[in-house]
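For practice. Any example?
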Amino acid sequence: MSARGPIVVVARWQLSAQSVEGVLDLLAELREQTLAEPGCQGYEVFRSTVSPEQLLLLERYRDDAAIAAHRASPHYQKLVVQRILPLISDRNVELLHAIEPT
């Protein structure tokens, strides 16, 4: 990754029907704490209308350093690494740089 300005994280998660509500509760806590990070510029969670076990997270960070700080934060380690990741059956994460079309 380069240090070129804002980065959008697009995370797609597949969950079991039994774990969705618990993960949504954890995401509410994670979102609140992540939005308080100085490098976080946005954090939204979406649930599929077709398949309610699928979630989409859109996160926006100031730069690479802000993402690194987020991933190293105690709340990310506790909520995502320890509690949410074991409940995800499939996960795809993309990092996108915002560009100005010419």
Observations:
- The mean pLDDT is 93.
- The two ends are 22 Å apart (CA to CA).
